[in-house]
Design brief:
seven-stranded parallel β-sheet
Amino acid sequence: MGRVMECEPLYYYSGAEPDWPSYPLSLTWEGELTSAQQHASERLVQAIKEELPEYLIWAVCGAGKTEMLFQGIEEGLKEGKRICIATPRADVVRELKPRIKSAFKDIPIQALYGGSGDKEGTTQIIIATTHQLLRFYKTFDIIIIDEVDAFPYHNEPTLSYAVNQSKKEKSTTIYLTATPRKEHRLQIALKQLPHTFVPVRYHGNPLPVPQLQISFSLKKSLKQKKLPNSLKDWVKNRKNPKRQVLLFVPTIQLAEDLVDMVKGNNPFSFRYIESVHSEDVDRFEKINRFRNREIDLLVTTTILERGVTFPSVDVVVIDAGHSVFDEAALVQIAGRAGRSADDPTGEVIFLHEGKTDAMVNAVRSIKQMNKRGGFIS
C-alpha cells in the first residue's frame, strides 16, 4: 500500500453494488478428500449456505486445510458471492495463490501483498495479507482467515479492524487454525463459536512428537560461534540421513552465524547450506531451492514456522526456550515434519538449556491431538 499517514484521507466507493457472476461449476480440482476432510468441507459448505456469521476449522498441521476450502469456495461462487482468503503473512499468500488458481482454473484470481504484481484487487476471488484488507470497505460476502492465530494478526487490533471493515454487514467469516488461541478455545467451550475439529493428517499418520534434548552450555557455545555438541551428535546419529534439515533459530543474527559456523568447519555431510529470514531479499528463491532439494540444510527464523510444505524434512529448534518460541510457534514448527505420504514421519528436536512451559505444553498439545485422532503415544 505504500506509506499511509493518519492525516491522509482514505476514500471508498459508495456507488451501486457490483453484480458478481454465478459459477455453477467452478471447481476444477480432481483430487479426493479423506473422510475427515470431507466432513469438515461439508460443514463449511453448510455454514456458507446458512450465512453463519463465524465458523472455525481447527485442523492439525498437515491435515490439508486448503483442500477443505474448495467446496466451500465453489458454493460461494455458485451464489455469486465475493470471496477473500486472507492470511497474516505474505509467504503464505505466495503459497496459496498457485494452489487456488489450479483448483479454480476458469475464475480470475488476484493476490495482494507488499511487492505483488497484482495491484487492482478487482477480481471475485482475492487472496491477500490481512494488511491489504485496509483497501476494502464492506466488500466481501465470505472472508476466510487462514492462520488466524499467527503473528502479526494475533493481538494486533488494526488488522482485525481491517478484516471487519472489509466484509459486508451480512457475511460469513471462516477461521482456519492448527493452534487456536485462548479466546477461540473459550468460545468453542462455551458453544459460542461453531467449529469442526480435524485431528488427523491427510495421510492418516500421527503428528511427530518433539524430543526435548538438554544441551549444556548451548548459549555459551553459540556466543563463541561454536556448533553445539548436542547438534553434532544428533546429526551424526539421526535415523534418516537422506532427509533435508530445517533448523529454526530465534534471531536473524544467529541464523547467519550458524551458516558460517557450519561452512567454516562442516562436520556434517551437507553440501548446500543457506539461511533465510524476513530481511533476506533472496528468501523466496532459497525456499524454492530447498523445496526442490537443492539445499540440504536451511537455517531459518520463525518466518517458516507455518504455511509452507516440504516433503521430507527433519526439524531442529536451537535454543527452544527462547521467548520467541511460544507454544503455538513450537506446535507449528513441529508440524513441518512428516507432511508427505511418502515420508509421513520425521524427527523433531528441541535443543534447550532448560525446559519451558511453552515446550512442555507444545508436546502435551501434540500428544492430545494424536490421541483424539486415534493414536496412542
